[in-house]
Amino acid sequence: MVLRIAVVLCLIGMLFFLLLMAIWKTLVGSHSLEPAILSEIDQLHNALQAYKEKHLVYPPCMAEPDLDVRKRQFMEHLHKVYPSSTYGELPADFDKLNNYISANYKVPGGSGTVSLDLNRLDPAEALVFWLGGFPTPVSTRAGGGQPIAPSRLFGFNKDSDSPLKRSLVSEGIDPLGTRTDARFDFRQERLVDIDEDGWWEYVPTPQNNGSALAPYVYFDWATYRRASTSPDGLGTVLYPADPMLADMFGTVVPFAKSYDPSRKDWLQWQNPDSFQIVCGGLDGLYSAPSRISRIEIFPGGESYLGPTFAGPPVECDEMEADNLTNLAHTTLSGDDPGAESSSKQWINLAFVWFLALGTILLAILFLTLLMKPTERKTNGPEPRFPGVPTDGSP
Questions:
Q1: Fewer Cβ atoms within 10 A, N terminus or C terminus of the chain?
Q2: Can you tell me the distance from the alpha carbon of 126 to that of 123, in angstroms, rounded to the nearest whole number?
């Protein structure tokens, strides 16, 4: 009997252990990632606002389709942020600076090392660059090839006269001693180089099994407003421009608030004087595989497709519907991730309580069955009087 009770208690203990694990998973692990992503978008938003408050200008997102204009934007921004620098502001000055960077910043990329190229910076990488600085270069000494510092981000040089230079002598003693700190706490495991050009992108969740996820994308107001007012510029600002990445993640564009196709010059942007941050949502995709230029309305996701942008508008596809932005705490389709997460949590809690009740009833049933007294078996009827045979023998 004691052994039976011990077995029952062990079974009950195992069942309650499983129950507690389920409760823990419900209370800790069942929260949707969407509110966490929106919180991080808020933090990135605040970091860019702090950048603006310090330097009086937002950094360029490097999505300008005109290459010379993009080069000029970059150099003019450097001069505004570092007024004592002598880099110049012309496209030719950009090329000179880029040659220096390519020669002095060798970083991990692809299956080996690559030279950084400012022409390759895109709206996802510009977000990390302006808030975190350069990727950490590798050692060029014999037998090197490894990053010279443990951090994936190398910041900028503390010398405001030449913030993009490297101080090779000082780096030999303390690689990060002459470098600035990041303006945002980028999680190292989520800095990735999807296009293998050496520049980091930042993804909203860690990559699983090596599968690529669409990174956060940054669009500055000057770029999308200029593109909509210049000849043939409407709908030209999008990410990614690389056809291979567009087939992998789809594409994303800055969002408009309203648009009248009968008056293409009448277009109102969301955040017309600041910037937009966009994330691919939980599916890690911006849209169905596409490189179609479009004007997309937020919220709702209705799009006017290029090259005419004349309509009628088309609805956002399923992969676009869960995209998240710094425009509102809702998805592109208008769903409230926080409310949805709360609803799912109540459903999970109800399931856990149902499991708890079932576990208790099952334990009671086991105890009842195991503790029920067993009847003694005999080969014949019990004698009516003790000591008196029942077969009639004397």
A1: C
A2: 5
Q: pLDDT digits over 116-130, tens only? A: 999 999 999 999 999
Cis peptide before 381 (omega within 30 of 0): no
Q: What are phi and psi of 7, to 5 degrees?
A: -60, -45
* Count of alpha carbons within 13 angstroms of residue 353, beta-carbon side: 5
pLDDT (tens digit per residue) in 332-383:
877 766 544 444 444 555 555 566 666 677 667 666 766 666 555 555 555 5
Is the model's pTM score more than 0.70? yes
Distances (CA, A) of 279 to 38, 262, 297, 321: 9, 31, 16, 11
Q: Which sequence spans correspond to the domains of the chain? A: 2-30+341-363, 35-63+195-332, 65-121+134-181
